[in-house]
Amino acid sequence: MGVEVRTEGITKSFGSQRIWQDVTLTLPSGEVSALLGPSGTGKSVFLKSLIGLLRPEKGSIYIDGTDITTCSNKELYEIRKLFGVLFQDGALFGSMNLFDNVAFPLREHTKKSESEIKKIVMEKLELTGLLGAEGKLPGEISGGMRKRAGLARALVLDPQIILVDEPDSGLDPVRTSYLSQLLIDINAQIDATILIVTHNINLARTVPDNIGMLFRRNLVMFGPREVLLTSDEPVVKQFLNGRMIGPIGMSEEKDEAQMAREQAMVDAGHHHGGAEEVEGIIPQMKAQPGMPVRQAVLRRRERVRQILHTLPPAAQEAIRRSLEENGDSDTQVIPAYQGAFDSTVRHNLTNG
């Protein structure tokens, strides 16, 4: 099973530029989470911090209980073996065919024989739908295939945590949907903790168990998907509906005068830009038939029951409906769960 990832009050800057500050969240073991935010809000920087490529100036990052901000390079090397990372562009070696690209981590970090390596690589290529393409170079295949090859390589060391940076980057909506389904299916099969960094609205609405959002150098909120999908927080509502009206502007923030002008246009009947507001919660994507039962769903069901009374009313109602639709009418509220959601996050959710 995947391991828990937890940050406590982490802050990251580059020189005098503050990227984000005081970020506290918990990625529950084995669940799929998504981190949203407009371009330039430091989502990829957050991923690199989780794996120890960047070090925050303040705060702690706990990977399976170990604070990687204080451990030695040798300890960090071992902890990184828990991770598989899918970078935006796949990050494949252009001079290597797909087989050698996927085999690279095994040859670098293990002492497995070539026959063992071949068996593992072919399994991962089959899992990602790339059997028959192992001899091709990255330049000879489509962007979607390169993404899947990058995912196959991220899986070869059997990671307990998978970080996915902008999986939709460079892909059309259909292939983004296929890749989203693949991530859900992989979670069903290996029960890894998955964090997807994205600004794709459809992916955010349909894939994760939990959603967080970065804006104005802060984590606006993080919690069960129903919390953000029913939120009245202006920046969350604007982002998830792809609208012009709201705090997010072309240069990230708007001043009050610009927001007033745009609202006046809407009040006068002018189009607000973006999609029409989506009512209700779109059902979450499920693992395909024939896949194992996704254990994250079962664990999450119990977890959200335990924190239900700490959540906003709209989120509570959405969770109750979801439980009923899945044949689980027992929505009794029991004392708050103290492990996965600390007091800071519950405060953010309640006041968001």
TrEMBL record:
InterPro entries in the cross-refs: AAA+_ATPase (IPR003593), ABC_transporter-like_ATP-bd (IPR003439), ABC_transporter-like_CS (IPR017871), P-loop_NTPase (IPR027417)
Domain of life: Bacteria
Every ABC transporter domain range: 5-241
Record key words, sorted: ATP-binding, Nucleotide-binding, Transport
Name used for this protein in its record: ABC transporter ATP-binding protein
The keyword Cell wall biogenesis/degradation appears for this protein: no
Keyword Protein biosynthesis among UniProt keywords: no
One Pfam family hit: ABC_tran
Molecular function via GO: ATP binding
